[in-house]
Write a structure and sequence with these properties.
Blueprint lengths: L7 H7 L4 H29 L1 H20 L4 H29 L2 H11 L2 H19 L3 H20 L17 H18 L3 H32 L3 H6 L2 H25 L4 H17 L7 H29 L4 H26 L3 H29 L9
């Protein structure tokens, strides 16, 4: 996604459209990233991780080619939605693979490395995307992505081993009626998991952080282009503070999550989540007051750090508590975070340049993040009533 963001001003000119319509392409991309994993999670648990990876990457490669040939903004929106269906499979299968191959005592650190993907994306994506857009044109962002997608599709299909222990055909084949029942149950499983207060609370806390981040990242290129008159290449460079801070936050959050969990018990992982979510809300409030280039970059960097700092604790706790539903619980988290992200990317650009609108946008999200830490803290307290006799 971040490859595309610096080129938004160029796309507006080339397709003779408005910023609002191009932002809609980004927002609907987010929405499908949240809804498609519900189906992908069921496919992963039935057919295995390898099949899901190859299929998703194949869809991504084909639709990326189509995005590059978009003749108007409506076609771009359509192809971006289809592209996000393929990309969303990678989000589900990644957490599932980590759960398959890493034991609980080191899973937080492993998930910290896995969740670095959103950090590495803003670290290199806008920089590469901005340079490609300036030198070759914005369409080559998608064509280059298609080439990479096709390469990784082939490598995942032929070289990657299967990690999911239940990816086998049953001794007795499913009847047609049993197959239909299985399909319905597994598709609605992520929504059933959201009825669990622990899953709901952590999905909302992570989701409020994710949605604010997405809103800011979408607003970023428009603001830097119109206010500071920067071109796509320099806009890409301005994402570096966010990416670097997110990279550090992911690594530190994962290591601390494992450290406190091994000493005080699995629920102690949530301490890093509470700290990250609460500090994220404070960082978001800075955007109400910033009006200079340096302060915008500083505030964006803080968002990146605390957003990625809290994620390993959330993911590792949920996966450890739902060992047979690693894909399903990941889909639950993704559904909430990208549905809220869709709303933020729709609302954020509309209110950014209005003083009252910007104030209430960031104030509302800050209050939401603060409140979401209360039930998470309650679950930690409840779990610590029973002493943990783990590693000291």
């Amino acid at each position: 996604m971040t490859l595309f963001l610096p080129s938004i001003p160029l796309v507006v000119i080339d397709l003779e459209t408005t910023e609002a319509k191009v932002d809609l392409a980004v927002a609907l991309y987010m929405l499908m990233l949240g809804t498609a994993p519900v189906v992908w999670a069921a496919v992963s648990d039935r057919y295995g991780r390898k099949f899901l990876l190859a299929t998703g990457l194949g869809i991504h490669a084909v639709t990326s080619v189509a995005c590059g040939f978009s003749w108007n903004v409506e076609a771009l929106i359509c192809f971006r939605v289809l592209q996000s269906i393929g990309v969303s499979s990678l989000l589900v299968v990644g957490a599932g693979v980590v759960a398959d191959i890493y034991p609980p005592e080191v899973r937080g650190n492993a998930l910290g490395w896995f969740t670095m993907a959103p950090a590495v994306g803003p670290l290199f994506g806008p920089l590469v995307g901005g340079a490609v857009a300036e030198l070759l044109g914005w369409r080559w962002i998608f064509w280059g992505s298609a080439i990479l997608g096709a390469f990784f599709c082939c490598t995942s299909a032929f070289l990657l081993p299967e990690t999911h222990p239940r990816s086998y055909q049953p001794a007795t084949p499913y009847t047609e009626e049993e197959d239909r029942k299985w399909s319905l149950i597994t598709v609605i499983r992520p929504f059933q998991l959201l009825l669990d207060p622990r899953v709901a609370a952590m999905s909302l806390g992570n989701g409020f952080c994710q949605s604010t981040t997405l809103g800011v990242l979408v607003i970023f290129p428009i603001t830097l282009s119109s206010t500071f008159n920067l071109d796509a290449m320099y806009i890409g460079l301005c994402y570096l503070p966010y990416g670097l801070c997110a990279l550090v936050g992911s690594s530190l959050g994962g290591r601390l999550s494992d450290l406190v969990a091994n000493k005080y018990g699995p629920s102690a992982r949530l301490l890093t989540a509470i700290c990250g979510i609460f500090c994220y809300g404070l960082s978001g409030l800075l955007f109400i007051f910033v009006d200079t280039f340096a302060l915008i970059l500083t505030a964006t960097g803080l968002l990146g750090f605390f957003f990625c700092f809290q994620r390993p604790g959330v993911y590792s706790f949920l996966i450890q508590n739902y060992p047979g539903d690693s894909s399903g619980v990941s889909a639950s988290v993704l559904f909430i975070q990208y549905t809220l992200g869709f709303l933020a990317t729709m609302i954020g650009p509309q209110v950014w340049n209005t003083p009252d609108g910007k104030f209430w946008f960031f104030m509302a999200y800050a209050i939401a993040t603060f409140l979401s830490t209360i039930p998470i803290g309650y679950f930690v307290k409840q779990s610590w009533k029973v002493p943990h006799h783990g590693q000291d």
